[in-house]
Amino acid sequence: MDLGISGKRALVCASSKGLGLGCAQALAEAGVDLVMNARGAEALEAAAAQIRDKHGVNVVAVAADITSEEGRSRVLEAAQGVDILVTNAGGPPPGMWTDWTREDFIKALDANMLTPIALMKALLPGMMDRGWGRVVNITSQSVKAPIAALGLSNSARAGLTGYVAGTSRQVAPQGVTINNMLPGIHATDRADSLDRGVAEKEGISVDEARARRAATIPARRYGTAQEFGAMCAFLCSQNAGFIVGQNILLDGGGINATL
Length: 259
Ligand code: NAP
Prior knowledge:
The chain is of the alpha/beta class. The chain contains eight helices and seven strands; from the N terminus they run E-H-E-H-E-H-E-H-E-H-E-H-H-H-E.
């Protein structure tokens, strides 16, 4: 399918690995030039080089912490005038509701709610002036169904979801769409480290931990970054201009709900 976005420019945050990288690859395949970002320069440069070689698009890599004001301003300097914004960052640490302090909440809100909001605030006006834009926020299945150990994520991402619900309707008249993608369990470094933790705790192999978790998903497997990226590219395409303020769950049927 021709997505109709060849020659556009996108900022894809937190994109040297995992779901962010899947989105960057799928957009590059559609002919989109990229600004890619992550904290670690080595993996970021390697990912950028691989995308340039494979897809022949222009890629600018900015090594920076997207959740810090300083890092964000360097990324935004490189990303002025982009047509597409994909927000992403690492998720907050697990714990219990009895543990979290005000400081923990401020950190989670900063990273997973206020950072994407700051990026939108900076880049939406240009998209609106030009009469076309696409924003996709990577959130989590925890927005639909809370994950007990991830209360910080449940809270921060719910806040972002409320913001998007209201703001997406205000920018839609100018041809700009904002939507959220809600990953269930995907085979990335983050999923690997969770599986390693379970394996250690339960005295089983990592393969066994992974097989047990996969068995809880109706699709009986983890999602892939490639599938996730393909949906992101579709949401950024010309075909998706009527999809506004939606929360798209990619979880292999993991959340047992009718709507
Ligand atoms: P991942 O495989 O660990 O990759 C994370 C990527 O983000 C890396 O490129 C990392 O590079 C970059 N990154 C992390 N923090 C950053 C920061 N502060 N500034 C800039 N770049 C940063 O993670 P993932 O599985 O793709 O997860 C992406 C998001 O989806 C996370 O918020 C996660 O909580 C959420 N999620 C994932 C799953 C899943 O099953 N994978 C499920 C639900 C929700 P550096 O470390 O070099 O910065």
